[in-house]
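User: Structure with octanoyl-coenzyme A, tokens only please.
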Amino acid sequence: MTEYANILVEQQGRVGLVTLNRPSALNALNKATMEELVAAVTAMDSDPGVGAVVITGSGKAFAAGADIKEMADQGYMDMYLADWFRGWEDFARLRIPTIAAVSGFALGGGCELAMMCHLIIAGDNAKFGQPEINLGVLPGMGGSQRLTRAVGKAKAMDMILTGRFIDADEAERCGLVSRVVPAADVVSEALAAAGVIAGKSKPAAMAAVEAVNAAFETGLAHGVQFERRLFHSLFATEDQKEGMAAFTEKRQPEFKHR
Ligand code: CO8
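Assistant:
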């Protein structure tokens, strides 16, 4: 397995586990960390032996944002010409189901990374926020768009304009996270959920990811049509035949592309 400087990568059965590993900087997402994370999860996306991925932090944070110290002295041209942080678009396009297991701070780019994952499981110590306003900027990794779609205008404006952090319960109430669990259990709960997902047909799970994501990007009629096309296309898979045969024969399915 490839060795990385800023992340730890493991595989447990069919589940990939990526741990952000810059705890002394609260896992601030510098360019090197982004590149390593995108490379590691992209490899899992196309690995038939991996069916879902958990991304987690370490120490006090999931991630406390983009690396402020790395960005501080950049000028507009530096940012523009390097297309600073374009790599996150590659992350957001991944189809393998990704779960953010959030313990502690998920701020700025850390909250945005969690939102790029397909679901978020939060420890009861989690704190979410978009505090970029305090730095004289605004969210830059999709936060103004994904947070607003996830929690609605009222809560998004509140978080983005005041920089206020919300706790795990508030995050669950407003629909930002899927589940809240005791902090000590967050990775094990996420691994268990990922294990369940990795036991399904991978092409069906990938299609489901594409369909749900389309709900954020298209109108209803187009989204429903897109879903129907994906539904039709799965009838070309062996897993659809197996899944439906198993139901009829009252047994568990043995998916080929698990
Ligand atoms: N970047 C760099 N270093 C950081 C970051 C960060 N985002 N967050 C924390 N650190 C470092 C601290 O500087 C400190 O380092 P050192 O020990 O060398 O001084 C170490 O991590 C520990 O942090 P603290 O001592 O501050 O820990 P506290 O427990 O006192 O406070 C907080 C924790 C409240 C989380 C505090 O660290 C904090 O406010 N961090 C910054 C949060 C923030 O503003 N995040 C948004 C960053 S901007 C962003 O994410 C924009 C994304 C879009 C970019 C797109 C570009 C195109």
